[in-house]
Amino acid sequence: MSRRKKTLLNTTRTQAILLTQQRKQLEDAIAVFVGKPAPDFHLPPKELDAEPPSINAGLPSDLLERRPDIAEAEREMAIANAQVGIARAAYFPSLNLYANGGWQSADIAKLMNVQSTLWAIGANAPKPSSPAASAVLKFNSQKPAMTPASRAIVKLSSTLSAKCRTTSRVFSS
What we know:
Layout: H1 3-34, H2 61-65, H3 68-91, E1 96-103, E2 117-124, H4 131-137, H5 148-172
């Protein structure tokens, strides 16, 4: 027996035990409700003979939104979009302007004189420090074949179409 089948079998056995426990708890609650002692009260198990409800031909999108693989592809798409925004922001130069002012004097009596005033203005333009920013600045010389955002779009669309087909096959059979 394969590892996957063993895991599925053990999971099913565990669920059966938990359902048996839940059934006993509900029987005890019903016994209290009807006023009988819980150990003496027992409801015989009965199989359901009703048919499951029919599902419309169109698949509700909620079924696909709850799938973990589709949610993962959506998160990867959001990360790729954020990286595009970071790279775009790094493409534009950053310019910092600053100004200082004040008074300086060795003699406190001359502190408020015009000769004691002090000021400075300046600017600096830091060069990009992150690899993403450097890559964006090299974009014109080395154009990549496929950006991370493009890869995320392709992965999301292929995941969605594959899962739609799978879900459609399950409901049609």
